[in-house]
Task: structure prediction
Amino acid sequence: MEFSIKSGSPEKQRTACVVVGVFEHRKLSLAADLMDRISGFYISDILRRGDMDGKLGSTLLLHNVPNTLCDRVLLVGLGKEREFKDKEYREAVGAAVKTLNATGSTEAAMYLTEVPVKKRELAWKVEQAVIVAMESVYRFDRLKSKQEELRRPLRKMVLSVPRRNELAIGEVALSQGLAIAQGMNLVKDLANLPGNICTPTYIAEQAQELAKTHQMKIEVLEQKDMEALKMGSFLSVAKGSRQPPKLIVMHYAGGKKDQKPVVLVGKGITFDAGGISLKPAAEMDEMKYDMCGAASVLGVFQAIAEMKLPLNVVGIIPTCENLPDGNANKPGDIVTSMSGQTIEILNTDAEGRLILCDALTYAAKFEPAAVVDIATLTGACVIALGHQASGLLANHDPLARELLHAGEYTYDRAWHMPLWDEYQEQLKSNFADIANIGGRAGGTITAACFLSRFTKDYEWAHLDIAGTAWKSGKEKGATGRPVPLLVHFLINRTTA
Result:
């Protein structure tokens, strides 16, 4: 979809559709009121007849509104005016785009960006409008033999800003929103692919293609390279699969040469059957999403490269499969990590931390300014936080606050959980330095405690995205989170 920024009165727009808002109790937004007055109160007359009450997310499409230059006017319900905040704005934009896409308006002028949103400026509204619009029209049907084609899908959208001196602000926000949305689409495309296509080798190939497109340096370490590095923990997970493991290392050099990089580490289990500790059959198909952390790193690199962000960033992606096999890890096995610490594997389904710990040890070689790992790590996080917030744990509170702030700004929220030393007691092993699980209690926290044993040389944060990376049920598919959070975390680092 093409986007542009414009400033102008709604009744003067020559377009297929002008989109304006209506609050509950038939209160018109400023743009809707202008359209109403120029049309001889045509809109308010329709509302008085009860055709629409302004309920959040409701829509009403009007044709041939008198004295206007557009073909249609789309009224979008905004709900209660005093309650119109982030969530309500995003829902209204999403409802508008879905209606436009389904009703033959190939282009539209969106005036919801002019509606006041509590504690949000114009740049936020424009960026979010682009992201939500792209989310609303996203489809993954490339593997279907017959792809459903909309007769006249939405192709162009003009986002309105109130004043001409705000056009530059709008343009910057539009480009940021588009870069983030494209990064999210890359994540969705990769994660929605089945495990027989999206293998570790496939992820490495996609990373190489991305690096080539944006002139980024990339290294793909093979099994022999990881053996030389003594990544015994990572390789122990991979040995149950016929697919060779990969350690992908990408370098985005947007900052000064002496600037320490931010390192992003993404868990890339392309299919997780649980290994010998086999998962239940129900919904095991969703374990193709266990590489969403890896996909998120690629999505962030796509976005920051498009934005030409003045920052140095390193992406590390350990990727393999976790399958049952005669050569697979067994409960009770003890492996030696790259750090030299030995690990007793009490549950082979707690494999994400086994590949991440070696990648986190490897991250230290870059002398990072900060390290953030992203992983669909624990079912316990879904139980604790549901599907709204990602779990956030860190060994450095200021870093955690940076990520929380970025999440609040982007509506890609996280929740800060404790990483107290007392939880480390649950990881004690009689036979090794550390066990890979700590029991049912506080599973998200003890998983992060495990990772913290390998991050003592730098500032580190962990995002558990098990509840936010994908949706189940009727809307099953990857969400593209936490790309918005991470991109704004990096943007904020360039202005700090």
